Fold each of these.
Amino acid sequence: MTQTILKVNHLKKEFNDSYRVKALDDVSLEVKEGEILGVVGESGSGKSTLAKVITRLQNADAGDVFLCGENITRLKGNTLRKCYRQMGMVFQDASGSFDQRLSIGKSIDEVLENFTDMNEKERTEETERLLEAVGLKKDYRKRRPSQLSGGECQRAAIARAISVKPKLLICDEATSALDVSMQAQIVELIKRLAEEMNMAVLFISHDLALVSSLCDRVAVMYHGSVVEQGEAYEVISSPKNEYTKQLRASAFCIET
Ligand SMILES: Nc1ncnc2c1ncn2[C@@H]1O[C@H](COP(=O)(O)OP(=O)(O)O)[C@@H](O)[C@H]1O
Ligand SMILES: [Mg+2]
């Protein structure tokens, strides 16, 4: 039976700075192993907040996040650390997510050192294997982030994210800073890795056309709520929600 890797139940998160924003307003969704769920919506719709609450970079006000059946919403300390072995994250700013003073290899090595029992030689071999798995030459491990192109840096960030062999990979606008042909290559890479590693992927993007080329299912967010979700093909070919219709019209240049 296909296992549910991520289950998000009625998540709520408000910000109360100068005014009140419901960044997540009762969000529920799930992703199964090997499945790619696209989360799409305009800027400010709550997508990054969703990623941050799932990865516990922020705490939810209400609701639950289950990872492989375990409720991780309120985990702390060592138990939270353990659950990070099961999640990988890739952000828009790949270069900025690396320590600029360290080589790419050292950054990946640190993750392996933290989360596995490998010795130094095994970690070096594994780093080289990971770099090759994402389409980079193994001697890239000696380079600094500034010595990589945007696309290469994103590949290196993916290598680091999958180094813990996560059950869930979260990509938040991971291809948004790249040009179109590089975007397509990274999307192909994510698709291949999801299949090979049987990973669940939450692929967050403002770009419906891109999401539709990659994802099995799509959840459309608007003002903190999921207004529509379903099979990618159905959501895109016959959207039911008014906002999805608008998003589709602008993504595919269709007149409404
Ligand atoms: N740390 C924060 N403090 C106050 N408001 C925030 C914070 N993070 C996000 N928001 C607000 O929450 C809403 C959702 O933001 P975000 O999740 O970043 O959206 P998206 O990733 O879809 O662009 C926005 O209105 C944003 O201004
Ligand atoms: Mg965002």
Note: The pocket of magnesium ion (ligand 2) is lined by residues 47-48, 173 (CB under 6 Å).
Amino acid sequence: MKVIAFNGSARKDGNTALLISHVFEELQKENIHTEMIQLAEQKIHGCRACYKCFNLKNKKCFFDDDIINTCIAKMEESDGIILASPTYFGDISSEIKALIDRAGFVARANNNMLARKIGAGIITMRRAGALHAFDSLNHFFLIQSMIIPGSVYWNIGIGREKGEVAKDQEGINTMHILGENMAWLLKKTGK
Ligand SMILES: Cc1cc2nc3c(=O)[nH]c(=O)nc-3n(C[C@H](O)[C@H](O)[C@H](O)COP(=O)(O)O)c2cc1C
């Protein structure tokens, strides 16, 4: 079993990466393989709306010029997918939105290839907007026919400077319960 996480922060190894690592701790306890791809420092562009993925149906974005096709392949080979993002102006980062739009169209063009995988969103913020950003991530999972585990709070951690989210005990605890629930669901669904 494998879970792939995408860190949509423009800042590598920051608060969003830290939250992902706490979810991973619980998954690893259950022998679930984990991998994180950080989108920071990547040149990523959004969907060009060419609709060629619907003609080609080859599980790839027609524009094979950045990391997105690698991300799509990683999504397909995994049983669980984590999309994580800091809050930027009350919503998700443009990097994670580009992944959502392009992977989302490719998946729908290829017989909903992500259906029934387990999906979880994670958001960091300094002050406000996390819940709206969290909803944006969940829109992806829900339209892909994916299954979303919950936690004891929405999957949000609070912090501004790199590493500051470690002080948000409730946020960290929320990540651990999310990891436990994700592992439980993966095993129950026999993935
Ligand atoms: C361009 C930009 C916009 C931001 N907008 C918000 C915001 O709307 N609300 C908020 O609470 N924090 C906002 N922040 C703060 C980040 O969400 C916060 O620092 C977060 O912990 C960063 O995560 P990272 O360390 O993984 O990059 C913004 C940061 C940046 C760079």
Note: The chain has six helices and five strands.
